[in-house]
């Protein structure tokens, strides 16, 4: 029988999650063994399909493991997916509503969807269901603050994109103070694309640059998507900065940036946003991606704790599968399953009382998953970010900085120091 202490402790690790769920299930006297429908609105086609596939993979693996542990109070999980294609507010909201109407899903476990203006939160609120997503947007926090009682069931499973800004500047400042890279000047160039995610990050870097000792030499917004980088590269070559920060995030476009950059390279570090974490970046860019730095505020850590997950993921989905993306929905589904079990079971649409119980458990629990530590910020119901938002690594998700050092292998984690497995190396284009 599960001890009261385990329930009250509140800190749950991924390795212990199956045991915890099994213990809860062992004391349950559930008569209902019908499957629990879990809905997910994902871009399974279109320009973000590579991510959509991995998000579904993460859900499938988590559901398999949760069901092997006894499900939620004896009830197995079933995954239902609606394709959000090119995304946008109308398509995403309709996909989510279909999942609720057709399957009576008590939870919508999404990856990311762009161009929604966070309409997902209204769908969840109107139907009284839990919604967890990985849009990585500060607009989630801002919308939550307008009416916490209405959006009580809406959770962002990672820190908002704003924290990429100060995190990137802190990384560059720390790197410049070491002996691996001597910055030739204090200039940084910022290249966002025309979408909310990229622009928020770029603006945060621009607005905080002077606090970290940098000056902006170029701030140029490019179309979304784009693979024509010639005009931007010409400006960079005229006034070479110490670092080029590209906050556009599509892997195929970023790979083309590097191919075109190396036609006439300059001695600038190249930092890119998120896209280099996906296999397509290496597959398209090849040797041209060696030396690129990127970061993510959510992604599977390359540590011993996540090793069983990484091995299981690639055994199930193939050696080139991107567990760094699938890990997001994987952790999210485990967190919700445990919260639902603690709350006495999942809810169903329009059962506000039970849905509030599940939401309260999600707010209460601190979960150590394969991406690091999830803890909900009560002011916005997003995850705290370490080290720029909280100084305690046990209470925030690490902002990871990785470098492609050999395109034939996985990238190397070079910061933050407590999690790093490798050291920064000077890019091969430096002369």
Give the CATH class of the largest domain: Alpha Beta
Strand segment tally: 17
| Number of structurally distinct domains | 2
The unreliable regions are 1-10
Structural class: alpha/beta
CATH homology group of the largest domain: Response regulator
Largest sheet: spatial strand order: 8-7-9-10-11-16-17
Number of discrete helical segments? 14
Percent of residues in beta strands?
15-25%
Shape: globular
CATH topology of the largest domain: Rossmann fold
Distance between the termini: 64 Å
Multimerization state: single chain
Overall radius of gyration = 21 Å
Largest sheet: 7 strands, mixed
In CATH, the architecture of the largest domain is 3-Layer(aba) Sandwich
Rounded mean pLDDT score:
93
Helical proportion, percent range:
25-40%
Protein name: Amino acid ABC transporter substrate-binding protein
Family: Belongs to the leucine-binding protein family.
Keywords: Amino-acid transport, Signal, Transport
Organism: Metarhizobium album
């Amino acid at each position: 029988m599960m001890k009261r202490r385990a329930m009250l402790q509140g800190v749950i690790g991924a390795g212990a999650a199956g045991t915890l769920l099994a213990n809860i299930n062992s004391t349950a006297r559930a008569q209902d063994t019908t499957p629990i429908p879990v809905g997910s609105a994902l871009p399974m086609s279109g320009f973000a399909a590579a991510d959509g596939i991995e998000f579904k993979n993460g859900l499938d693996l988590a559901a398999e493991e949760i069901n092997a542990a006894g499900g939620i109070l004896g009830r197995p999980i079933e995954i239902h997916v609606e394709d959000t294609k090119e995304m946008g507010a109308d398509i995403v909201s309709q996909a989510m509503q279909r999942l609720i109407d057709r399957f009576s899903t008590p939870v919508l476990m999404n990856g990311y969807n762009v161009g929604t203006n966070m309409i997902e939160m209204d769908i969840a609120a109107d139907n009284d269901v839990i919604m967890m997503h990985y849009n990585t947007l500060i607009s989630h926090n801002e919308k939550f603050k307008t009416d916490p009682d209405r959006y009580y069931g809406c959770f962002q499973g990672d820190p908002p994109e704003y924290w990429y800004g100060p995190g990137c500047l802190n990384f560059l400042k720390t790197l410049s103070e070491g002996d691996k890279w001597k910055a030739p000047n204090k200039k940084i160039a910022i290249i966002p694309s025309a979408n909310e995610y990229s622009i928020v990050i770029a603006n945060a870097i621009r607005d905080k640059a002077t606090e970290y000792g940098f000056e902006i030499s170029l701030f140029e917004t490019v179309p979304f998507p784009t693979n024509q980088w010639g005009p931007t590269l010409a400006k960079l070559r005229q006034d070479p900065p110490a670092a080029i920060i590209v906050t556009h995030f599509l892997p195929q476009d970023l790979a083309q940036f590097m191919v075109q950059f190396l036609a006439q390279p300059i001695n600038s570090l190249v930092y890119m946003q998120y896209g280099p974490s996906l296999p397509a970046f290496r597959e398209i860019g090849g040797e041209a991606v060696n030396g690129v730095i990127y970061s993510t505020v959510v992604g599977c850590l390359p540590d011993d704790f996540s090793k069983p997950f990484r091995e299981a993921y690639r055994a199930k989905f193939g050696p080139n599968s991107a567990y760094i993306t699938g890990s997001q929905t994987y952790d999210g589904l485990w967190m919700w399953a445990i919260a639902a079990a603690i709350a006495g079971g999942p809810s169903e649409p329009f059962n506000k009382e039970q849905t509030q119980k599940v939401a309260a458990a999600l707010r209460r629990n601190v979960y150590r998953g394969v991406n690091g530590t999830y803890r909900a910020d009560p002011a916005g119901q997003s995850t705290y970010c370490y080290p720029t938002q909280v100084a305690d690594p046990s209470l925030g998700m690490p902002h990871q900085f990785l470098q492609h050092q050999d395109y034939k292998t996985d990238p190397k984690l070079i910061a933050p120091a407590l999690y790093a497995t490798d050291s920064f190396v000077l890019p091969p284009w430096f002369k």
